[in-house]
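Hello again, I could really use a second opinion on something today. I've been staring at a protein lately and its backbone has me curious. Please have a think about how the structure follows from the sequence. I owe you a coffee for this, so here goes:
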Amino acid sequence: MKVLTKELRNDFDFQEIYCAINSIEKKTMPVVFLNGDEGVAKADIKTVKTQFNISDKENKLNFMVMPATFTFYSDYSETELESEMHSPENDFLSQYINRLRLITYLPEEILMQVKDKRLLAMGYATQKVKKAILRYTNARIKAATKKLERSQIDSIKTSRELTIYNQFKKHSYIYSIEELFDDAYITSIVKKGKDLYIELDGEIIFVLSDVETLEEEIAPQNTEVSFFELHKVEQGYELHLLLKIRDENLVESFYYLTYKFKDMWFDCIT
């Protein structure tokens, strides 16, 4: 990738942390502390004490109420390509674990002030830490967004020189190179002679002619397209893809894939 690197992906994804600790969500959720509440401002903790015929420990509960910062799908199925759509548990873990991953990319001077990164991943931060994180992530997100928008404009402009550009006008629901790769999964790749047939989402096939693989950090089948770039180069074009996979623990990882080619078109138009 020339512009949309792995590091830029992390900066762009800081939106997950920014929105979590700066949520305007009206729905709330309780957070219960059973094994200590280190890292939480005392003013944020509420205590309920009862006098039922149970143990002293069970008669006392520390908790706080905070915005419900996790969003969930309405339906789940084991047949979905996205692992987070297999179950509510996967849905939550995918969001929580990758928030935790992004937190590790915050500057050390901020991380030193975070006493419990699990709470931060849930959307809680003390006011001092919150201000520092919002200031830092906001700057990184804005810079990354500008680079992404500029790259997309350049890629769309380059696509006008390819056969697929005129085919977009005839396609039933894909009208640009940007829409082609938006949230797309590579479900199959087949080399036929000098041409490469790439299937997206199990239904859309496009072709790269006279293709040459310049970089392949991971086998692309069964990966998700996170970013794409299209560049005009000497004697052809280059398609740069930033691919995403989730491991068995739903942790996201990113890999580069780059093809050089002469032309690009749909195998068939629907």
Remarks:
- The chain has a mean pLDDT of 93.
- DSSP finds eight helices and eleven strands in the chain.
- The first strand starts at residue 28 and ends at 33.
